[in-house]
Amino acid sequence: MMTFRNSLILSAALLAVACTPTIQLDTPKQGITINMNVVVDHNISVKMDEQTQKAVEDVNGKDKNKKGNQ
């Protein structure tokens, strides 16, 4: 016959096993829909110092002269 101590240990073990936490995840039947109304506006701004601006203008002027001579 089991002693009181053994039955108490067995009861505590069964209780501990019965109370284990479980996590259940259920995925939705339909996918997730995200509606995004986005307006993309792009503006490119180039800033140059005076020396660089003059060099670019000189190169562009030479390119125009080459195209005109051909």
TrEMBL record:
The keyword Signal applies. Keywords: Signal. Residues 51-63 have a biased composition (Basic and acidic residues). InterPro entries: YnbE. It comes from the Bacteria. Residues 51-70 are annotated as: Disordered. Pfam families: Lipoprotein_19. Residues 1-25 form the signal peptide. The keyword Transit peptide does not apply. This is Lipoprotein. The lineage of its organism: Bacteria, Pseudomonadati, Pseudomonadota, Gammaproteobacteria, Pasteurellales.
